[in-house]
UniProtKB/TrEMBL annotation:
Residues 97-302 form the ATP-grasp domain. Keywords: ATP-binding, Biotin, Ligase, Nucleotide-binding. Pfam families: Biotin_carb_C, Biotin_carb_N, Biotin_lipoyl, BT_MCC_alpha, CPSase_L_D2. SMART domains: Biotin_carb_C. Residues 587-666 form the Lipoyl-binding domain. This is Propionyl-CoA carboxylase alpha chain. Its cofactor is biotin.
């Protein structure tokens, strides 16, 4: 019987498990690194143990430290979370050897799952459809093919090859990148990623929970999940669930997990893998089934029998999006910094199945959380449940639009556009959804007036804040102090670059005119700024209210409210039209230092993982020089042109910040 449970994970995963433990009367233990001492999951546990080491590899992924922490805290069970430890057979064995209950898949099964090719062979013997695998390039019958590492997860090392001429080089390059064996399998175009979540107990019961559609992905990682899939009818659902049950029994699996498949346009499907964890998208399954999957996990790990006789019925529709700290417009580069505000409106449930149509938020962050480079970029998962798919999508998109997420760049706008896209609304999705639809990456605030009005609101709020500050200091009375013939101006770095916003007030304190215009960054110190443009197409605007945090404008007879949150030089402006971050700029910026010609600088903060060249080495244009690891993703740094490596000041393990020098290439 589980009495006290240590969760070997962090963020929303740990908080999710703790929520169920509180309901069933199990005491909880959190683990944390030094950087996470103030993290929400630490404060929610009954006990917490600090782990030495500042990176995940030296803290959260150290199985020996986790077991020691469990012993010190009096825990008699360990939940591995949803990360690498949940898939590590050695860690599972060590937990059992220490005399504790393991809330996960059996170590023997995890050992089999470690090799994707071995797993596929066993599943094929059970007559579940699988794609053929090839390790010998001469055996590849045709193209395109997908190169895959035999071990690992998260989409690392996957590469599509479309002709025989590049196959050998691609295989060798992938082996170097992943540091292990690789193989090929046919690459199926226009395919969906479908998975069947399951729970299996040690008494032979295997319960599938319908299917989840996980096709909208970036870099082979899911960002939108839903259940049921719009492409799966009752007959196909029965086939998928039957194949999942056969797979689970063939592999001797016990616990919570998901059997993943590829599904083509003809309705044919192939086994992809069995993921031996609760999975990040488990919330949508809880919403449509009404079952607490963590509770079932705990029950099975204690040797209990599953309480349902068969698959539960599916009620309504649930969609989940993953809010990530990253910039989709710049190759999904991770974003770091302080999360100054994190607020999602109208959230009815947290970590629990929803009893009625509404929103559920599974978050590992809060106001003031520091987003670093060492962990996954996911900030939170927002889930909508409604009787129909259209209602769930509309509700989720609306909540995302009205959310206030200040301090780091996120994929929020892209998620909104994806949910509102005609192809998504009609169920026309597959794993290439984002690749074929560049319009999803366009700025959410496409209307010029929406951006310009946000700039005006920021300027008005800034002026109100300065007046309030001056009043407190006693230097001037409150109220408008604008000279009727003069202009008030501010310069911001906005979504499309530097802009100047200006406005004039009349003697009655009414807005007499305003403008927003693009500014050349090299001309910020010119005297022409501050002068009103000769002409401009600006809507008739009346200032209804102009406070330091709230500005209300009447625009052509339509009233809009802008909430302005200022942090330092940045104004975060939220309105019904979306959110804009505006950084105040000086009219007289300091000159930037000249960089050495041929310098390659870090595009993001992170740690150098691998260095594939040495000083003096000749390289080709596009050749991989090194990789940076940030937020559990590996980011390649390629040579922009042919040349010679003149300088290489970094080595594996070097921590770099954005803009730091990685290498210098000299022309041949």
């Amino acid at each position: 019987m589980i009495r006290r449970l240590l969760v070997a994970d962090r963020g929303e995963t740990a908080r999710r498990v703790f929520a169920t433990c509180r309901l069933v009367g199990v005491e909880t233990v959190a683990v944390y690194s030094g950087a996470d001492s103030d993290a929400p999951h630490v404060g929610e546990a009954d006990y917490a143990v600090r782990l030495d080491g500042g990176t995940p590899r030296s803290s959260y992924l150290r199985g020996d430290l986790i077991i020691t922490a469990a012993q010190r805290s009096g825990a008699n069970a360990i939940h591995p979370g949803i990360g690498e430890l949940a898939e590590d057979p050695d860690f599972a064995s060590a937990v059992a050897d220490a005399g504790m209950i393991w809330v996960g898949a059996p170590a023997k099964t995890l050992g089999v799952l470690r090799s994707k090719r071995e797993t596929k062979a066993l599943v094929a013997e059970a007559r579940v459809p699988v794609l053929p695998s090839f390790t010998d390039p001469s055996e590849v019958p045709g193209f395109p093919v997908l190169i895959k590492p035999d071990t690992g997860a998260g989409g690392a090392g996957l590469r599509v090859v479309r002709d025989a001429a590049t196959l050998l080089e691609a295989l060798a390059s992938t082996r170097r990148e992943v540091g292990g064996e690789v193989y090929c399998e046919p690459y199926v175009e226009d395919v969906r990623h479908i998975e069947v979540p399951i729970i299996a107990d040690e008494h032979g019961a295997v319960i599938p929970f319908g299917e989840r559609e996980c096709s909208i992905q970036r870099r082979y990682q899911k960002i939108v999940e839903e259940t049921p899939s719009p492409a799966v009818d009752p007959g196909l659902r029965e086939e998928l669930c039957r194949a999942a049950i056969v797979t689970v029994r063939a592999l001797g699996y016990v616990g919570a997990g998901a059997v993943e498949f590829l599904l083509d346009t003809n309705g044919d499907f192939w086994f992809l893998e069995l993921t031996p964890t609760l999975q990040a998208e488990h919330a949508v399954t809880e919403c449509v089934s009404g079952y607490d999957l963590v509770r079932l996990q705990l029950l099975v790990s204690e040797g209990g029998s599953l309480p349902m006789p068969g698959p539960p019925p599916i009620r309504g529709h649930a969609i989940e999006v993953r809010l990530c700290a990253e910039d989709p417009a710049y190759a999904w580069l991770p974003a770091t910094g302080t999360l100054h505000r994190f607020a999602v409106p109208d959230v009815a449930g947290r970590f629990r199945p929803l009893p009625a149509p509404g929103l559920r938020l599974d978050a590992g962050v809060r106001d003031g959380s520091v987003i670093g480079v060492h962990h996954d970029s996911t900030l939170a998962k927002l889930i909508a449940w409604a009787p129909t798919r259209q209602e769930a999508a509309r509700m989720l998109a609306s909540a995302l639009t009205r959310a206030q997420i200040h301090g780091v760049a996120t994929n929020r706008d892209l998620l909104v556009r994806a949910l509102r896209h005609h192809a998504f609304r009609t169920g026309d999705v597959d794993t290439g959804f984002l690749d074929r639809r560049p319009e999803v990456f366009a700025p959410l605030l496409s209307a010029v007036d929406a951006v310009r009005l946000s700039c005006l609101a920021a300027a008005l709020a800034g002026a109100a804040a300065r007046r309030a500050s001056a009043t407190v200091l006693g230097s001037m009375p409150s109220g408008w102090r604008n000279v009727p013939s003069g202009s008030q101006t501010a310069v911001y770095d906005g979504p499309t670059g530097p802009v100047e916003v200006g406005y004039r007030m009349n003697r009655h304190g009414e807005l007499a005119g305003w403008w927003v215009r693009t500014v050349d960054p090299e001309e910020l110190d010119l005297a022409g700024l501050g002068q009103a443009p000769v002409a401009g197409d600006y809507p008739e605007t009346v200032v209804v209210q102009a406070g330091d945090e709230r500005v209300v404008l009447d625009v052509n007879g339509i009233r809009l409210t802008f909430n302005v949150h200022r942090v330092g030089e940045v104004s975060y402006v939220d309105s019904p039209e979306g959110s804009v971050a505006l950084r105040g700029l000086s009219r007289f910026p300091l000159p930037a230092p000249d960089a050495v010609e041929g310098s390659l600088i870090a595009p993001l903060p992170g740690a150098v993982r691998r260095v594939l060249v040495v000083p003096g080495q000749r390289v080709r244009a596009g050749e991989l020089l090194l990789t940076l690891e940030a937020m559990k993703l590996e980011h390649p740094v390629h040579a922009p042109s042919a040349g010679v490596v003149a300088s290489l000041p970094v080595h594996p393990g070097t921590e770099v910040d954005t803009g730091e020098l990685l290498a210098v290439l000299a022309p041949e």
